[in-house]
Structure formats: C-alpha cells, structure tokens
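Handout for the seminar on molecular recognition.
Each group receives one record of this type.
Step one: identify the two inputs.
Step two: read the structure output and locate the region that could contact carboxymethyldethia coenzyme *A.
Step three: write two sentences on what you found, then compare them with the reference statements printed after the record.
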Amino acid sequence: MGTLLKDKLAEKIESMRPRTERLVKEHGDVVVDNITIGQIIGGMRGVKSLVTDISYLDPYEGIRYRGYTLPEVFEKLPKAKDGDMPYVEGLVHLLLTGDMPTEEEVADVFDEFQKRRILPRYVYEVIDAFPCCSHPMAIFSAAICTMHRESFFAKKYHGGISKKDFWDPMYEDGLNLLAKLPEIAAYIYAKLYRDGNRIQSNPNLDMAGNFAHMMGIEKPYDDVSRLHFIIHADHESGNVSAHTGHLVASSLSDAYLSISAMINGLAGPLHGLANQVVLRWLQEFVDKMENRVPTEEEVQQYVWDTLNAGKVIPGYGHPVLRKTDPRYTIQREFALKHMKDDLLFKYVDMLYKVVPPILKEQGKAKSPWPNLDAHTGVIQWHYGVREYDFYTVLFGVGRSLGIIANLIWDRALGYPLERPKSLTTKMLEDIAEKSKNKKAGGKKEK
Ligand code: CMX
C-alpha cells in the first residue's frame, strides 16, 4: 500500500501533458481577456490569467473541487467509520487525481500519511524558541520553513534532474509536509495555550481525527476538523494564499518554502485572519449585551455602528462570490444540528438575517453575503478552542491540501516562472489620454 495514489497520479499526468502542450503550441496567441486600468490598479480583480484544474470558483454557485460542488464532495467522499464527515485523505486523492476515491484508495492515502508523520526534533525546538506573544501564524510559517532542509526537490534539483520528473520530488515533499501539519499545529497550540503539555499522536487515527485527538477534544471535534480542513482546502488560484504558494514555487522553490510563504499571505486580516476578527467583533457585541440574546434592532445598531466607524463587517463580502458562501452554509448546517442553542451561534444566526440588507443599503460591498470566516470561529469556540489567534492556523492546515495539489501539478505540467509586466503611473496616464482622444475622435466622425 501507499503507492496507488502516486501511480494513478503518474498516469493522469501523462494524459494531461499533451493537452497543455497543444494549448501552448497551437493556440498560444489566442486572446482570453482584456485588462483595464481599473483592474491593474485594483488588485487585478477578475483578470483571467491563471490556470488550475484543482478547483473552480463560480460567483453564484461557490467552489467546485475537481468539478464537484461542496455538497457533492461531502456526499460522495467515503465517510469516516466513526463519524458523519468524509476523511480528509479521500479529499487528497480527489484533488490530486480528479477521481472520487474508493475505500481502498482512501486507505492508501492514509498509509502515505502514516509513514510520513514523524516531525523532526528541531521543529519542536524552533517552536519552543519563539518569543512570548508571537502570533501562532508567524510560528507556523517558521516551523514549516525550517524543514526546507528536508526537501527532496531541492536535493534532486541540485543533483540534476530532468524537468519532466520535477513533480516526483514535489509529490514527496508535499505529502511529507501535509502529513506533519496537524502535529505542528497541535504542538503550537499546546506550547502557546497548554503550557507545552502535548498529547502524543495516535498512529491509528486519520489525519483530522488524529488532530482532534492531539488537541485533546472529544467527539464530534474529529468531524469538526474533517469538515474544517475540507472546506478550507482550495478556492481557485487567485486568492492571496494560493497565488503566493504558486508564485513562490514558480521560481522552483520547494514545497516548504512555498507553503511557508502562502501561510504569511493567509495571515492578513482581509484573508485568513478574518475568522479571528469575526470572533473578536462578536465577543465585543456579546459583552455589550451582557451575555443575553440581542433584539433585531440591537443587531442592526451594532452593524451600523461598525460601518459608521469606517470599519468593514468581518466575515461578509468576497472578491469573487456573489451569494452566500457554500462553505458558510455547510458550517451553518453543522451548527444547526450540533449547537443550535449556543449563544454565539444565535448571534451569528441573527447577523445572517440582518447584515445583507444593511450592506445592500450602504451600497459599497459588491457582495453583501457571508463568507466562510463568518462562521468558523463560532464552531471552534463552542468546542473549546477559544484562543482565536489560532483559528488561522487551522485554515492554513486545510488550505495546504489544495495548494500542495496545485504545486505538484505545476511541476508536472512545467508551468514556468511567473513574471507579469509592470507599467509606471505616467504610462497608464498616457494610455488613458490616448483612449480619451480616440473616443472623442470617434464621436466627431459620427
Ligand atoms: N463590510 C463593509 N464594507 C465592505 C465589506 C464589508 N464586509 N466588504 C466590502 N466592503 C467595501 C470595501 O471596503 C470597499 O470599500 P471602498 O470602496 O471604500 O474601499 C467596497 O465595499 C468594495 O469592495 P468589494 O469589491 O466588494 O470587496 P473586495 O473584493 O475589495 O474585498 C473582502 C473583499 C473580502 C476583502 C471584503 O469584502 C472585506 O473586507 N470583507 C471583510 C473581511 C473578510 O471577511 N475577509 C475574509 C475573506 C475570505 C477569505 O478569502 O479569507
């Protein structure tokens, strides 16, 4: 066991390569998109300039992993024997190969992770050496980066390896890293919030089940972890974390350097840090209400007060999505089943009714609907993970699944160094002037 995934992946890569080669050779000059000055200055929003087959984000439907919507992913992936949620190992197979795995294929990935779990001693020491009050994301990024010395890819590259074979050591690095992430995250948690009292890994448990075990939290936290890692796994390639991972790896940096970099991007408040901002914002509201359920008017007032103070409503809005994030809906369904009487969930539930009409009335946000971060922290809080600085680390473990799948395919299809072109402000002003004159000329001719 432990080779089914790699063998299948090798076959898929062989059949995929000619398609990419043909696109470049025969259709390389076909125009896909135009770009405006607004997009250049506005963070390249919506510019069609990346390629990935791992996931696709439809503004109205939400994310699809390998063509499957999230509800389909949860329905079709083999479920954990002792829970309601699918194994993360099954998702790894799906993301890498594009096929829904059989039970045997899930067991094969389980095996792959099993033999790669042991964390080098020095990683614990690096975590231990961090100064007090460091943010767990800074520690997480450093712990991953420090394992760069283990990279097969870096060694093979320096030893000389054919470009066609780059994906193989990237696969080895990627799976080695993925298998270790739950242990790194759980140790950071133990170190920062449990006086270093760590619970040893249980080799018989699946990736997320073992994470729950190392966190010392009882069922259904194993299912919470499976759910959490799966919904955070991928969101196309243009978001900051995925794009950072891809960009850094495009210089042939290995998986450790690339994933460490993407963790730094995820740590920003407009991206992965939003889940902790949501919880802080909710807690302030709960304190203000002295732990009672607010009236609808009070919720409206709190939302307007936030907006009038020039702040955004955390957990609402999205650069691409234009409806309620299905990752929010799946968490909501879980909460309705397992924790509907939780006080914080009642707040989240009321906000879901109140925020969208207010954001619509304010008229700035292109999407008034909640994203996944509006819900994540409340579930973690309910199950006792109350140190909200830690929530983005959990996001990072999940997001690594999709990014590593992408990095392996980047190497397999030989995607080159990323290098867009910059212009100066003066050049853009000249282009704008020319366009204005052209339009004016066009009007006169009529
Ligand atoms: N509350 C108030 N105003 C909002 C808003 C919100 N939740 N979301 C967007 N806006 C405002 C923007 O600040 C912007 O205002 P200005 O024109 O004054 O700068 C305007 O609406 C237009 O923004 P947009 O095009 O709709 O949104 P962006 O693509 O620029 O940004 C996002 C998207 C998520 C950063 C933004 O909606 C936001 O700040 N939301 C709150 C933070 C959050 O939930 N982040 C998590 C995102 C999920 C993830 O990827 O991790």
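Reference statements: Residues 239, 270-272, 274, 307, 312-319, 359, 364-367, 371, 373 surround carboxymethyldethia coenzyme *A (CB under 6 Å). The chain has a mean pLDDT of 96.
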